[in-house]
Amino acid sequence: MSKAFNRLWSASLVSNLADGVLLAAAPLLAITLTDNTVLISLLGAMVMLPWLLFAIPIGTLVDRLDRRYILAGVNFLRSGIVGLLAFTIAADLVNIYLLILAAFIIGTCEVATDTTAASLIPQILEEKQFEKANSRLQISETVVQGFIGAPFSGFLYALAIYIPFFFNSVGYIVAAILAFSMPINFLQDVRNEKKAAEKPHFLADMRFGISYLFNHKLLRRLVLTTSLIGVCYSMATATIVLFMVRELDLPEPLFGLALTIQGVGGLVGAVVAPHASKRFGRDRVMSFAIFMSSFLLLIQGFSPNIYLFVGLTAIGAFTISQWNILLMSTYQSVIPNEIYGRIHGTRRTLVWGMMPIGSVLGGVLATITLRTPLYVGGFISTAIAIYSLKFFLNLGNAPTVSKS
């Protein structure tokens, strides 16, 4: 692994620690501010909505600018936003609407950091290293976010509600410094030193990315299928914190611990993914993962207690982790690096941009019972996964591109 990847990985470790703290603290704060299921579902929706609104223009910027500057600058920005949020909490000025607004801005920052980091992998590594690199990033996310950040957040939250948010702000500053120090080639080197006069207009670059994805048969089918399943997942999990706390009687201080236990499955899945792909084939592992994760989502709705529920989510995290790693490696192998930001932004506009719709639908369904979103989302995603198995099993025939 290159020095540039190691620096990227270090930044990922620190930002994931901050994410883990925020992941546990924000929902707990939300349910102290309101019991309205729709407003709570909007919190998750606002994190995902920026993918619908901004993913394509941000992806275009990622292809035109120095990617490490984008990564560093956005981490500084979200540090400031979370710091301001922490101040409003400490001053007893926060309300659910301020939290939702902060979630929208942080979600916009997440669009930029995720797109940039994913675009850097094929820029700084060879194709044979993609699965290993994505596995390491997934492991760091699972371990640091789930095993350290989430339970640590519960401890900080018990001391004072605002402390996790101040800690989160500092973490993003450190991640920004690490990203800024990343030794990588400038983007113009990747794009073969195109002269400014030959550089397409910004809007032309955006249109090209949309057109490329729309006309690429395999990418189009993969993106549409995962978009529909993503809506189902966001629908099922929109009010999951209420389901765990109110329906399954999980004590609020143990919410972070429950996330940690779920993270065990994700960690094992991340470790296993490259080896399973090598032994059984990427297409077979992905097919198994997308079906099992969807089916387990349905089964979670029938959980009689928190213990079985957390066990099922741990197994689900095992399959989802494998899916995420191998899906990202597939995209990085198929999409040319010089246009990766635009394609990544376009596909995430569809996949993650539709998730707010699922979140709002989940909030509405939760007014019936807190189990209803899991029933409906799990059933539909399982049906889609079964229908798409033949397509996923043929992914191994996808043509790859050489590193730019």
SSE blueprint:
Elements: H1 3-33, H2 37-64, H3 67-90, H4 96-124, H5 130-159, H6 163-180, H7 187-190, H8 202-215, H9 217-237, H10 240-247, H11 255-280, H12 282-300, H13 306-334, H14 340-351, H15 355-365, H16 372-387, H17 389-393
Helix pairs in contact: 1-4, 1-5, 1-6, 2-4, 2-8, 2-14, 2-15, 3-4, 3-6, 4-14, 5-11, 5-13, 8-14, 9-14, 9-15, 9-16, 11-12, 11-13, 12-13, 12-16, 15-16
Number of domains: 1
User: How many β strands by DSSP?
Assistant: 0
The CATH homologous superfamily corresponds to MFS general substrate transporter like domains
For this structure, what is the CATH class? Mainly Alpha
Largest sheet: none
Tally the helices: 17
CATH-derived topology: Growth Hormone, Chain: A
CATH architecture: Up-down Bundle
Q: Could you describe the 3D structure shown?
A:
Helix 1 (3-33) packs antiparallel against helix 4 (96-124), helix 2 crosses helix 8 (202-215) and helix 11 packs across helix 13 (306-334). With 404 residues, the protein is mostly helical. The protein is built from 17 helices and no strands. Residues 186-197 have low confidence and may be disordered. The protein is 80% helix and 0% strand. The chain has helices at residues 3-33, 37-64, 67-90, 96-124, 130-159, 163-180, 187-190, 202-215, 217-237, 240-247, 255-280, 282-300, 306-334, 340-351, 355-365, 372-387, 389-393. The protein has one domain (3-182, 201-397): Growth Hormone, Chain: A.
